[in-house]
Amino acid sequence: DAGVTQSPTHLIKTRGQQVTLRCSPKSGHDTVSWYQQALGQGPQFIFQYYEEEERQRGNFPDRFSGHQFPNYSSELNVNALLLGDSALYLCASSLAGGRLNTEAFFGQGTRLTVV
Amino acid sequence: AQSVTQLGSHVSVSEGALVLLRCNYSSSVPPYLFWYVQYPNQGLQLLLKYTSAATLVKGINGFEAEFKKSETSFHLTKPSAHMSDAAEYFCAVSEGTGGSYIPTFGRGTSLIVHP
User: Fold this and answer.
1) Which residues in A lie closer than 8 A to residue B43 (C-beta atoms)?
2) Which of A25, A38, A40, B96 pairs as cysteine with A93 (C-beta 3.0–4.6 A)?
């Protein structure tokens, strides 16, 4: 079992550009959540995808969007990048839209640097 | 609304000494509580979780935490620190509001272990 895999591991982008991050959930999981972890901070919830729909969203602007595919993998898109978007982006997978209090498994993250 | 406060951004102990990482939570309903560990350049790994069963929860790597409702605390302990325990530790709370268990994370405590 490969667990949760994220790609790429590191990324450098310029202000104003757009970026797409990818996540494959743990085998058997159907729900993907995305988090932003700024340096020295705890993870902040961005949104959660279940059944190919955004089910919950944290306090993030519309520049942050996502998608879930039929195979449960997911993408996080960020438009019009700002320097403040520099962070570690974590993907977590779980079961049943998070309605069950089952463990969420995290990937190793994508380190995004905006210059 | 749910929130978590982790007291102390850094905790330093000697190898073999007791580890105590403090976490206080705020929740309007009986909470679910978690401790995660993050090693450098890694994602988060669940150490243990409290889900309204036994108040003393045992986790992996010799860690345990005790839920104290009267003190709204969920402190993490380990009797004897190992060098390999050096990492960032995050406390998280979720209320299961709206049928979804999205955790809110604290800012983290960095555990430093001296030889």
Assistant:
1) 4, 90, 106-109
2) A25
- Taking only the tens place, the pLDDT of each residue in A13-47 is 999 999 999 999 999 899 999 999 999 899 999 99
Q: Which of B83, B88, B6, B81 is nearest to B39 (CA)?
A: B88
Q: Are strands B10-14 and B109-114 parallel, antiparallel or unpaired?
A: parallel
Confidence label for B99 from pLDDT (cuts 50, 70 and 90) = low
Residue B26 CA to chain centroid, in angstroms? 14
Nearest-CA distance A98 → chain B (Å)? 5
Q: Which 8-state DSSP code applies to residue B61?
A: G
In the numeric block, which tokens belong to residue A71?
């195979």
Per the CB < 8 Å rule, is A107 touching B43? yes
For residues A72-86, give the mean pLDDT.
98
Contact A42, B107 (CB under 8 A): yes
Are the C-beta atoms of A94 and A104 separated by less than 8 Å? yes
Average pLDDT over residues B13-34: 91
Residue with tokens 């991050």: A21
pLDDT in tens, B41-62: 788 999 998 887 788 999 999 9
Q: What distances in angstroms separate CA A20 from CA A57, A73, B20, B32, B77, one per listed residue?
A: 18, 13, 39, 32, 39
Q: Are residues A104 and B51, on separate chains, in Cβ contact within 8 Å?
A: no
Is A99 in contact with B107 (Cβ distance < 8 A)?
A: no
